[in-house]
């Protein structure tokens, strides 16, 4: 039978849920407030935070790495903030930033890639972070092993009858 009224037929379209913000974005805004959420956020591996000393990241190098991560939006697209931008944000001179990046490069965490713009010449360097990614992955494995060992030792200590007794003094 033909629909003679101007009402549309019923739809069997199932509405998609969760087209709004992700749970992580909502959690971020719950912690930091909606204004901070509008500016954005950067995901940083916990290993990088916990293992900064083991990665030889002193405070200036760590701050520079965080700035590079803030500009690294896509896996296959290297970040390319200028030394001046980094320097302003971390309260160092551009020359100090250059020296610390050279140290990061010497340590195999970062590789500078020269960029040129047609008709404009040299522009800001891009930074390959694959060395940092590899080191963080390796350190993550070590941290997970250490956590598993700690868990096993704790479980062994909690078992009855396995307590070591002090030997009587002679």
From TrEMBL:
InterPro entries: WH-like_DNA-bd_sf, WH_DNA-bd_sf. It comes from the Bacteria. Residues 149-170 are annotated as: Disordered. SUPFAM superfamilies: Winged helix' DNA-binding domain (SSF46785). This is Helix-turn-helix domain-containing protein.
